[in-house]
Amino acid sequence: MSPPNPEHLARIAFGFAASKTLLTAVSLNLFGLLEQHPSGLTVDEVRQHLKLTADRGVVDWLDALLALDLLEREGDGAKAVYKNTVRNFRLV
Hints:
- With about 90 residues, the protein is mainly alpha-helical.
- It contains four helices and two strands.
- It has one domain: Winged helix-like DNA-binding domain superfamily/Winged helix DNA-binding domain (Arc Repressor Mutant, subunit A, Orthogonal Bundle).
- It has helices at about 5-25, 30-35, 45-50, 55-65; strands spanning about 70-75, 80-85.
- A hairpin with a 6-residue loop joins β1 and β2 (about 80-85).
């Protein structure tokens, strides 16, 4: 039996997190919403359009999509604007 490999477990965990992040965006039609707003939306605007109640969770979710290169962000903080990337445009 080989010794435990934490990298293997990390790949499984992070792979699941990435797919769950993407599938949540697809199920809520986030990419379609952002396609309708090509200039982008702030976190509060995304929250209102999608009728989400979490505060911090929405920021973390959008930033996770940013880290996965599925969204672009202009600015920081409450005034940050999120947009679709060219890469995900065909997913919409």
